[in-house]
Structure formats: C-alpha cells, structure tokens
Amino acid sequence: MRRTLIAVMTSCLLAVTACTGGGSPTPTAASEAEVVAWMDKVCGAVDGTVKTMADEPPIDMSDPAKLKTGLSDWLGSKVSAVDKSIADLKGLENGPHPKAKELAAAAQDGMGQVKTLLSDTKSKLDSSTDPTQVVTAFTEMVAKAGELEKAGADVQKKFDETGLAGSAQKASSCKGLQASPPPS
C-alpha cells in the first residue's frame, strides 16, 4: 500500500516535469539559455516535493496512537513541501517564455491537486477516533492517487503545447527528475 501510493504520487510529480518530444520551437524573444535556466527553476520547484514524497510513512500497527501521529506528521511534511513548490512556481510565472505564466499555473494546479489529496487525508486522520478510521483514510488516499496521474498528464501536455519540451530536456533539474525512476 505504501509503495503504491509513493509510486503513483512520484509518477504524477515526475509527469509534471517530464517533457518529451513535440511542441513548437522556443520563440526568439528570450535566449534559449534564459528559457533553459527558467525551466531549471520550474523543475527545481517540483523537485523538493518529489524528494519529500520518496520516503515511506511510519506505519506502526502495534500502537494506534503512534500510527495516527506518524501518518499525520508524515502527511503534514508532504503538504508543507507541496506548499513550497506551489509558492516557488507562483514566483516563476513571469518567466522569459511567452507562455511562462500559463505553464507555471498548470504546474501549480497539478501540485494543488496533490496538496488537496494530502490535506484531506490528514484532516480525516486527525479527526479519526480509532485505528480503523486511520487505516480507512490512508487507504482512501491510495485509491484516489490514480486521479493524480491525469493531473500530471495534463501538465505534461501543457509543456508540450507551449513548446518547452526541448528546453526542459536541457535543464539539469529536469534531467534529474526524468532520471529518477519511481519506486516499485
């Protein structure tokens, strides 16, 4: 269950920055180096969340209080990482590419969907009164994680539509994300 959630969420986050093929060439209004540097920042904004999502939640079924607290703390750290990514992406809306704002907004929306899932689950966990409710809330989150794949695909499509796939392939932070396989 833990690995499934992490794999799906990491795949979604990787899709936010995995830009392959397609797209029109970058306009000449900004130099290619400026666009690549900006893409590096966009991918870097997502990278913190990807790295944070890579750890597994502490699951100690022998102690219900520790289970609830551990999962709640784990989710809280993930929400904080997503918040930082969203804020960083917001700060990149005025990039050197004519569609920078559109692309940054699409990435923010994708990250917002991740945040909603994590926050909703944390709220359910925090209000739970028994271990069964804790496990149910976490299981529901895993079941909904598939919805995040669509959000990631939508963002990837936006990268391709804006013609930034080539620039992303040259940005080191984007390369690092593409090279990171999701956990199995």
What does this structure look like?
The protein is mostly helical. The longest helix has 28 residues. The chain is elongated. The N and C termini lie close together (11 Å). It is built from eight helices and no strands.
Q: What is the gist of this entry?
A:
It contains eight helices and no strands. It has 184 residues and is mainly α. It is elongated and about 55 Å long.
Indicate the structural class: mainly alpha
Tell me the number of strands: 0
Q: Proportion of β residues?
A: under 5%
If you compute it from the alpha carbons, what radius of gyration comes out, rounded to the nearest whole angstrom? Answer: 17 Å
Helix content: over 70%
| Helix-strand string | HHHHHHHH
Q: Which overall shape is indicated by the principal axes computed on the Cα atoms?
A: elongated
- Low confidence ranges: 1-28, 180-184
Rounded mean pLDDT is 78
Per DSSP, the total helix count is 8
Largest β sheet strand count, sense and barrel closure: none
Cα(first) to Cα(last) distance is: 11 Å
Layout: helices, strands, pairs:
Elements: H1 2-17, H2 32-53, H3 64-90, H4 100-127, H5 131-144, H6 146-161, H7 165-170, H8 172-179
Index terms:
184 residues; 8 helices
